[in-house]
Amino acid sequence: MYHRILVPVDLAHVGALERALNVAGDMAQHYEAEICYVSVTPGTPGRVARSPKEYEEKLKVFAQEQGQRHGRPVSTKVYVSADPVADLEDLLVKGVKDVGADLVVMGTHLPRRLDAIMPSHGGKVARQTDVSVFLVRPSRA
Amino acid sequence: MPVVKDNETPSSDEHAGVGVPAPEGAANLIDTDYVIGQDNVTGQIRLNLDIHGKVFAISALVTVLFVVITLAAQDQVAPMFEGLRDWLTGNMSWFFLTAGNIFVLLCLGLIFSPLGKVRIGGAEATPDFSYLGWLSMLFAAGMGIGLMFFGVAEPLGHFDAALGGITTENGVRTDWAPLGGAEGDEAAAATLGMAATIYHWGLHPWAIYSVVALALAIFSFNKGLPLTVRSIFYPLLGERIWGWPGHLIDMLAVFATLFGLATSLGIGAQQAAAGLSHLFGVPEGNLTMVLLILGITAVAIVSIVAGVDKGVKRLSEINMVFAALLMFFVIFVGPTLLIFTSFFQNLMAYVVNLPAFSMPFGREDENFSQGWTAFYWAWWISWSPFVGMFIARVSRGRSVREFLLAVLLVPSLVSVLWMSAFGGAALDQVMNQGFEGVLGAATELQLFIMLGELPLAQITSFIGILLVVVFFITSSDSGSLVIDTITAGGKVDAPKPQRVFWAIIEALIAIALLVGGGLAALQAMAVSTGLPFTLVLLVGCYAIIKGLMSEPRGLPEIEPKEEGVK
Question: DSSP state, B157?
Fold first, then answer.
């Protein structure tokens, strides 16, 4: 049913992504799909990498590790932005087209009051793209 | 390969060990164990946070302290702050002027040197923004607002002073004429006045911005250090920049930017209110000004949340179009021929008088060289952390030569054209049309009175006010981004609410000082930070050369040298 699953990844917050990564892995196995891990990173040095190139290499390593866990083919895509926090949704929507994904699996936080003025990235991506989007929320426990 | 180790770096950090990446790509990274953001406080208090604890907390506390002191003890504080500024521009003018000349010489030298081939962000980096968007942002951040206020006022002021000639009292000159003045000679006074104005708005201020921006860009995009002012000091202080020397440099940058922005916002609101009252009879008063500040801040917040590309870039482009329309209107509806001939004449006069204007020692025109030039240099320099950091952030992917042509030469030429148009039109009214209304008017109204003598005055004046307001929005916007990045330890991807927080703080300071008094006093304090920052910039010159020397020049085939900068 799905051939290529896009999973947005921020290597600085991998811990918070665990659930989404597992969901994506399980679905990829079920549908025999490929997973493309996509990141938006600043051109300036950050916590994870000191150049976009270095970030890209770390993301490739990360994707290989994920691939070994779920056993499906993986690929990566990195977008460089002068203002990653602001451009994230637009670039993810572009990423869906660029990599030809037919499903997005992304982690997101619980809905909260502040979403009215600053909506969550997941919600915005879901609204702007025409493929299916699976928003993985933190567990209730 | 000198790997600099810092034993104090906390190793408990979960990212420890990724601090030293292998040098990759055609850029030459600095080896450091410091992980960007390692000293940051992250967490969630209803909102996500990611800040550099010490820099954030202390700058915020000192800011509040200064505002409270200024509000509480205005009468004592005002003379103190203003005295400090006057002492600095008076006694340290040789230092400001010398430093300014060094910056210009360095930038011009780099354009022609082989170091100009180095590309910001590594040999294969591609620009993040188009030429139009990039240049618009440079201009809006650098001096858009100043050109609106001083485009008419400054040429006229120098013209008037030069025409009056030299007056002395006990052997000391009491006049404000540039150089020897031009007593009684209207044409010579006009040319001298324009040349002096161009000197203050041309190569020197843009060289000041270029030095900060270039140093930051190289040490961040090419050397892998965080995008924050302390990184400039790496060649001098090494790993010590991660400790208190670095904290202090960053705090000073936050302080100068915050107070510079907040006081300009307050004073700008007064001037915009004066313009609105003059044009449309809107009542002047605190309510109008507070509403203006709130309105400007509200739009700025929308733009901040939208981000650099969809926010400040778009606003800057729109403003560029309107500014260009206004300028061409003045050129073609005003004295077209005179403006075009005077453009070249003014440029020539600038070049001819440049050695005399920029002479740091033995000046006889002390009022001019201290009261105007040194004050301007201190002012530009106190703005340079803000403007420089913003320019650095949007300049990845440009070669050093391209960067300097765009940040130094293009804006300087545009400034000359702008001053020739607005100043020239006003001088024409005074000298040839017998209309002297502009001369007697208050500084903030001179632009509107000049426009009032041209057709369609209501429309052009309205565009003028709109330009002023939007330039303030872009300043508040880009300034908040810069303060947020510095207080987040150089991270440009800190959570959005932090940017909004700084924009609101700027507005609150502006309103508090507007209602409670003390705007001018605190601005004097902000300008005084120009002195310590002159030292920062001089270190920046050293850092630029040192940093560029160790970068591969141009072509990707060249292997990166395996040598860190120490």
Answer: H
Residues in chain A: 141
Closest C-alpha among B402, B427, B82, B344 to residue B217: B402
CB-nearest to B35 from A47, A54, A114 is: A47
Could you say which of B35, B38, B492 has the minimum Cβ distance to residue A83? B492
Q: Give the domain range for residue A114.
A: 4-136
Model pLDDT for residues A66-125, shown as the tens digit of each residue: 999 999 999 999 998 888 888 888 999 999 999 999 999 998 876 666 555 666 788 888
Question: ipTM of this model?
Answer: 0.79
Q: Contact B25/A51, CB-based, under 8 Å?
A: yes
Q: Count Cβ neighbours within 10 Å for each residue of B410-449 and write b for 16 or more, e otherwise.
A: bbbebbbbbbbbbbbbbbbbbbeeebeebeebeebbbbbb
Tokens of B507: 């507005």
**Tokens 């006990």 label which residue?**
B170
The CA distance from A19 to B123, in Å, is 39
Asked if residue A141 is part of any domain, the answer here is no
Helical segments of B394-495, H only:
400-404, 410-431, 437-440, 446-452, 457-487
Residues B40-549: name the CATH superfamily. Amino acid/polyamine transporter I (1.20.1740.10)
SS3 B79: helix
Predicted structure pTM score:
0.86
Q: Provide, as residue numbers in chain A, all residues whose Cβ is less than 8 Å from the Cβ of B221.
A: 43-44, 51
